[in-house]
Design brief:
Chain lengths: 112, 153
């Protein structure tokens, strides 16, 4: 799959207060080829290509790292919690077996 | 390495996401509860393993499509600097490979709760091992019935 077809999506609450707990929801469109499937026409095994890792930073601090295996569904979704600190960027970085890196940056807005 | 062909039935049914259209893909023998325990032992090393009711796995009792089974793991922890979950390992006893995912957490998360969607090949137990900041490894399990296998893992 071409890189431009793969668009990561991230959702966080729009308004947050300092110290508040909030949920971060993420979704990447990615086939997550298991390496166990055969191509119908050629009969050849389709090589494995899954997203192996996700790293999330908030104001340059690590907030979450994940390592994924073939048992993650296609178009992998994951969510987790973070405690709101200061306004600033939250960055997401996914890496797949083919070495492609998908990134997303959002801004966390803290009120007051 | 042992290679064995899965029952045709499991594969014929497993075309959910168009990922398993071929019925006779041979691959490595699947994981067993012993493999999962071996993974937990690897994580725990010499640390104490505790079966904990403070790990709650939310899974559908019956998963109709094994290709995408929603899972939420909630661990009852204050997530303070002194007492928090360091890592969460999600394992499956009846998939081709026991590993599903591992997450590194910390006090910055405030709450030890994660959601994801996983592939399950057959009816089996999903196991969560949580590494705690005091060195203990908490283990939680939940059975899930899968009616349509999830594309060979």
């Amino acid at each position: 799959m071409a890189k431009q077809d793969i668009k990561p999506r991230v959702r966080v609450p729009k308004k947050l207060k300092k110290g508040e707990l909030f949920e971060v929801k993420t979704l990447v469109k990615h086939p997550m080829e298991t390496g166990l499937r055969k191509d119908k026409e050629t009969g050849k095994t389709v090589p494995r290509n899954i997203i192996r890792s996700l790293h999330v930073k908030y104001n340059d601090q690590d907030v979450l790292s994940a390592v994924w295996h073939t048992a993650m569904s296609a178009n992998p979704y994951t969510s987790f919690f973070v405690r709101a600190q200061d306004s600033g960027p939250m960055t997401f970085r996914w890496t797949d077996d083919a070495g492609e890196v998908y990134t997303k940056e959002i801004t966390i807005q803290i009120e007051g | 390495m042992i290679v064995k062909t899965l029952p045709r039935r499991a594969f014929l049914k497993a075309s959910g996401l168009g990922l398993c259209a071929i019925a006779t893909v041979p691959f490595e023998a699947g994981a067993t509860p012993q493999d999962v325990q071996a993974e937990i032992d690897k994580v725990a090393g010499t640390q104490k393993q505790v079966d904990s009711e403070r790990i709650v796995l939310s899974l559908p009792e019956i998963a109709e499509n094994g290709g995408t089974v929603p899972l939420t793991v909630a661990i009852d922890s204050p997530m303070s600097d002194a007492d928090h979950v360091k890592a969460v390992h999600i394992l499956a006893e009846g998939n081709p490979q026991p590993d599903v995912a591992s997450y590194i957490l910390g006090p910055q998360n405030g709450k030890a709760e994660l959601s994801l969607r996983m592939r399950l090949m057959q009816t089996q137990k999903v196991v969560v091992a949580a590494e705690m900041s005091n060195g203990e490894v908490w283990v939680g399990r939940k059975q899930v019935k899968v009616t349509l296998g999830g594309c060979g893992g």
